[in-house]
Amino acid sequence: MSSGANVAEAAYDFWNERWLDGQIGFHEGTPNVLLETHIARLEARKAKARVLVPLSGKSMDLRWLAERGHQVVGVEFVPTALRDFFAEWNVEPERLEIGGHPAASANGVTLICADILGVPPDALGTFDVVYDRAALVALEPEARAPYVEVCRKALAADGVVFLVTFAYDQSRAAGPPYSVDAALVHQLYAHETIELLETRSAPTSKRLTAAGVPSFDESAYLIS
Fold it and tell me: What residues make up the domain containing 8?
């Protein structure tokens, strides 16, 4: 059984239930502040980039990046998230199949309904940017190394990862989201050059607040 299958079997029911119940505190209704602040660094490398967004949900970042002229590919295994994204954008997407998985595309955004670890690399192609906001922190610890390898393989030779992580006292609450601090980022991306762009304090979910974690450190890294 593949790592992708393990991740999907362990996580699908949990995330699908969260979406169906509307328990999506991780969803930001506006573009991510750190992405907005540092987008110039990405666009200085390539003005119109091909961007992969793993575990994309229905993030507003997808639309925001596409409206800036980037070609965006999101991968998300909960069908509700994909349907909601296009419905809330008020567009009717073209229905596709990519790597054996259902997909939909409109206005520069293509969403693939699949486990990111189970999509053949050649089906995705290569990307100038992997934009990871709340993807790595959502994965079980044993899935992190396989996931990082997927990101490596997806990058063009001069591509970069724009990574946004959360760090907090993990002893106070179980994930997800899991705490991913700077030491863990450097461990996972040990062969890359890592630049910390910014760390800011951000509010957490109701569950974490109730557990005594009202805020966490949200950090943005540029990894090349």
Answer: 3-223
